[in-house]
Design the sequence.
């Protein structure tokens, strides 16, 4: 007969101990241990995630391309690295109401219409609620099988019998196992449910998608081991008041983690945005000071986006500094560089920097664009609307070179820009054929930037 005992789990790393501790010995975080009851005995057996394998040499392993299937949404295939890999376990996280269930239901529709068998397991919604969303999306030509179940063992048994090509579990925090005595959504339950689904994906060759709730800090709720166990972690970002959503990969064993997918929320679901640069620059003021267009690389995709800056005299003893979509500390650093290296007295001015379109960028190549936007607003002189800017700025005021220069210039030419301010090291190594389509101004420090701006 199984017995129960009380243990403490760390909500960050999953460390287990028999007594409560203020600091987790595993990850050194404070106040992260939570109390849970677990069952012990003969009934609590550890399951094998994979069948027993024989010892194999490195050179005996055959390298073949992963068997992928298209989701029917090119933007999602880009983030996944080329499509959905069979036997993979993917975690999709995001804020409530951001569109996680809508996106996955659209993927289910596309796969079912191509002849794939798909099962949608919901622990949060009833069959009628899912049917209402499906009617709103439209386009369903073949059956998508629905299952409302919170017991992971029952759901796994149904999946094994039907042998589908893809399974969606919405959400992992609502599923539970009878072998664990704690409540659904607890550390031990989430870990056990993920283990069962990982075993199901690897042994049956089924692509499994998990929907994960996020905390107020924006990370997936539950133990950090959840993200370690899955093959791919995708975050759905965006403000509910805005129409644009960003699908970003933060972990991918089958592709790059730098790719993003841009979607627009409409009445009939999420529609992909094939040209984000055109969308981000729509409505840009052409004769206003403090506006600069930069080019940032998101994976292999160049993205043109507008940076807006407002510098005005302050009426407070301490000037205000505000940034939206850009690292706050990075903006303060660039303001200090302008004061020290360019002789601009910004200590008595408020400075506000905004990234238009609700995007969040952290690439150093946008430093030069932030500098130009701040200078334009401070001097109240607009930048020519056909100018694109990119480059990294150091603490001594130097402008350092960046990568993917040809791709950035090709995107600028496609969008109709006629001039580019870029690092001199990149400008000297450019192919002359590229320079025939756009005027290139190479700069080596911010003083030269102020002269050519």
Sequence:
């Amino acid at each position: 007969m199984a017995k129960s005992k009380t243990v403490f789990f760390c909500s960050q790393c999953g460390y287990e101990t028999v007594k409560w501790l203020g600091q987790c010995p595993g990850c050194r975080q404070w106040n992260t241990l939570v109390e849970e009851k677990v069952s012990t005995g003969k009934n609590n057996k550890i399951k094998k995630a994979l069948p027993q394998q024989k010892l194999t040499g490195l050179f005996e392993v055959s390298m073949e391309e992963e068997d992928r299937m298209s989701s029917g949404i090119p933007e999602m295939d880009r983030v996944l690295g080329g499509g959905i890999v069979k036997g993979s376990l993917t975690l999709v996280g995001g804020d409530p109401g951001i569109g996680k269930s809508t996106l996955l239901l659209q993927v289910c529709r596309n796969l079912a219409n191509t002849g794939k068998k798909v099962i949608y397991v919901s622990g949060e919604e009833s069959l009628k609620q899912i049917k209402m969303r499906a009617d709103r999306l439209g386009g369903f030509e073949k059956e998508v099988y629905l299952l409302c179940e919170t017991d992971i063992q029952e759901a796994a048994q149904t999946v094994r019998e039907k042998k589908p090509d893809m399974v969606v579990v919405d959400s992992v925090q609502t599923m539970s196992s009878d072998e664990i005595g704690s409540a659904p959504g607890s550390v031990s339950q989430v870990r056990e449910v993920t283990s069962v689904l990982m075993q199901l994906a690897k042994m049956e060759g089924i692509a499994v998608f998990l929907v994960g709730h996020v905390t107020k800090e924006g990370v997936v709720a539950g133990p950090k081991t959840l993200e370690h166990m899955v093959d791919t972690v995708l975050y759905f970002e965006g403000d509910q008041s805005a129409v644009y959503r960003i699908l970003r990969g933060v972990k991918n064993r089958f592709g790059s983690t730098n790719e993003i997918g841009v979607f627009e929320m409409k009445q009939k679901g999420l529609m992909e945005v094939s040209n984000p640069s055109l969308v981000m620059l729509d409505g840009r003021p052409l004769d206003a000071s403090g506006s600069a267009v930069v080019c940032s690389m998101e994976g292999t995709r160049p993205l043109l986006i507008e940076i807006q800056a407002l510098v005005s005299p302050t009426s407070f003893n301490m000037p205000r500094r505000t940034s939206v979509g850009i690292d706050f500390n990075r903006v303060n650093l660039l303001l200090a560089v302008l004061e020290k290296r360019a002789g601009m007295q910004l200590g008595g001015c408020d400075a506000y920097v905004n990234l238009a379109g609700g995007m969040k960028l952290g690439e150093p190549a946008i430093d030069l664009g932030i500098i130009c936007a701040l200078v334009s607003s401070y001097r109240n002189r607009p930048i020519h609307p056909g100018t694109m800017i990119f480059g990294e700025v150091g603490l001594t005021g130097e402008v350092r070179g960046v990568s993917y220069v040809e791709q950035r210039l090709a995107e600028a030419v496609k969008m109709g820009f006629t001039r580019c301010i870029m690092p001199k090291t990149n400008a000297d190594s450019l192919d002359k054929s590229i320079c025939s389509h756009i005027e290139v101004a190479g700069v080596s420090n911010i003083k030269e930037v102020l002269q050519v701006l």
